[in-house]
Amino acid sequence: MQRTSDLLKNRTKQIWTIRPEASVFDALKLMAEKEIGALMVIDKKDKVVGIVTERDYARKIILKGKTSVKTPVQDIMTPVAKMYRVKPETLVEDCMVLMTGKHIRHLPVFDKAKFVGLISIGDVVKATISAKDSLIDHLSDYIGGKY
After folding, report:
1. Assigned fold of 4-143
2. Would you tell me how many other CB atoms lie within 10 Å of the CB of residue 44?
3. Considering only CA atoms, which of 134, 130, 109 is closest in space to residue 120?
4. Can you give the residue ranges of every domain in the chain?
5. Contact indicator for 38, 52 with CB cutoff of 8 Å
């Protein structure tokens, strides 16, 4: 069974960050340029203080009639205290249950209090499909008498 640490080992994408005082517009611009859906929010000491996603923009800016240019990221981000997160040893299946149950697309990974990575629902789906494909191949070989 795969764990989040396995997903992080295979990741080649950089984790992009933004400061809490940056504008939501700047966050959206960075997400568009990097073709990503979330940014980790870090303070001046490079400590993670939250996460901001495209969904935060849709729900907390557009639907509330605010402007992205004047609103700082800290006003719409999910702070660390309210963030769903997992540990490196968390099973991928448990991540899928959490992500689908809570309707979230990005899941920060923390080893104790230290941020070690970010996984997306795409990472989880790919890992799950890969595991199922491997099982199918194994069972096909078994049925076909290759063992």
Report:
1. CBS-domain (3.10.580)
2. 8
3. 109
4. 4-143
5. yes
Region 9-20 average pLDDT: 89
What is the overall mean pLDDT for the chain?
Answer: 90
Q: Does residue 70 sit in helix, strand or coil? A: coil
Beta bridge partners of 118: 108
Total-model pTM: 0.85
Measured in whole angstroms, how far is the alpha carbon of residue 134 from the centre of its chain? 25
pLDDT (tens digit per residue) in 70-117: 999 999 999 999 999 999 999 999 999 999 999 999 999 999 999 999
Place of tokens 């941020």: 115
Rounded to the nearest angstrom, the gap between the alpha carbon of residue 113 and the centroid of all alpha carbons in its chain is 17
Structure tokens at 71: 């609103």
Residue 126, exposed/middle/buried by CB under 10 A (0-12, 13-18, 19+)?
middle
The upper half-sphere exposure of residue 118, i.e. CA atoms within 13 Å in the direction of its Cβ, equals 21
